[in-house]
C-alpha cells in the first residue's frame, strides 16, 4: 500500500516537474530518472541535487551515473515522510 502511494507521488512529481521522468518500481524499491535537455553526464547535476536535498533533510541515492534516483526507504516509512520528500524534490528541481 505504501509503495503504491509512493509511486503515485513520484508520478505526480513527473507531471509537475519535467526534469523528472520514468517513475517506476515495485513495492518500496522505486526509481525516478533525471532528464535534462542537452545533458549527457549527470554526475555534477546529481551532486548538486543531493547537496540541495540534504540541506532540506532528504537523503538521496543515485545510480547510472546520477541519472536515476533510487528510493529504498524503510518499510515503516509514513505517508507524511513521502510527502515531505516529494515537496523537497519539487522545490529543488528549478535549481538543477
In short:
This protein is an alpha+beta fold and 96 residues long.
Write a structural description.
This protein has 96 residues and is α+β, with helices and mostly antiparallel strands. Helices cover 45% and strands 21% of the residues. A hairpin with a 2-residue loop joins β1 and β2.
Biggest pleated-sheet summary: 4 strands, antiparallel
Query: What gap, in angstroms, lies between the N and C termini?
Result: 31 Å
DSSP summary, beta strand count: 4
Strand order, main sheet: write it out. 1-2-4-3
Low-confidence stretches: none
User: What is the number of helical segments per DSSP (H or I, 4+ residues)?
Assistant: 3
Assign a percent range to the helix content.
40-55%
Strand content: 15-25%
**Class from helix and strand fractions:** alpha+beta
| SSE sequence, one letter per element | HEEHEEH
What best-fitting shape do the alpha-carbon axes yield? Answer: globular
| Overall mean pLDDT | 93
Strand and helix layout:
Layout: H1 2-16, E1 20-26, E2 29-34, H2 43-56, E3 61-63, E4 68-71, H3 79-92
Antiparallel strand pairs: 1-2, 2-4, 3-4
Salient structural properties:
alpha+beta, 96 residues, four-stranded antiparallel beta sheet, 4 strands
Amino acid at each position: 500500500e505504501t509503495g503504491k502511494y509512493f509511486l503515485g507521488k513520484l508520478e505526480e512529481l513527473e507531471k509537475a516537474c519535467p526534469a523528472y521522468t520514468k517513475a517506476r518500481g515495485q513495492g518500496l524499491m522505486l526509481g525516478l530518472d533525471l532528464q535534462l535537455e542537452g545533458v549527457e553526464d549527470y554526475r555534477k547535476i546529481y551532486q548538486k541535487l543531493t547537496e540541495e536535498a540534504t540541506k532540506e533533510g532528504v537523503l538521496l541515492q543515485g545510480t547510472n551515473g546520477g541519472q536515476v534516483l533510487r528510493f529504498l526507504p524503510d518499510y515503516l516509512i509514513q505517508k507524511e515522510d513521502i510527502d515531505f520528500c516529494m515537496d523537497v524534490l519539487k522545490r529543488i528541481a528549478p535549481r538543477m
